[in-house]
Amino acid sequence: MENQDLFEELQTERLILRKVVDEDAEVLYRNIYNNFEYFKYYYQFPFNSFEEYKSLVEKYKEWYANGSHFRWELH
Description:
By secondary structure, the chain is α+β, with helices and mostly antiparallel strands. 40% of the residues lie in helices and 12% in strands. A three-stranded antiparallel sheet has the order 1-2-3, with no helix packed on it. β1 (10-11) and β2 form a beta hairpin. The protein is globular and about 30 Å long.
């Protein structure tokens, strides 16, 4: 069986859902993942550093590669 990408980008007129990529990491960290107000409503604590969050992005990429998990990026 050919290894195919199980998580293709989905796009509508007003929304794009896609994988988190390296280029997104800094913006996501700055705007969401170190924001204590956001995490009041989320299931985990904010990250203490960009490097800590970047390690999670690397884990996302491993999940994508083996097809075990997926995390959407909203645009």
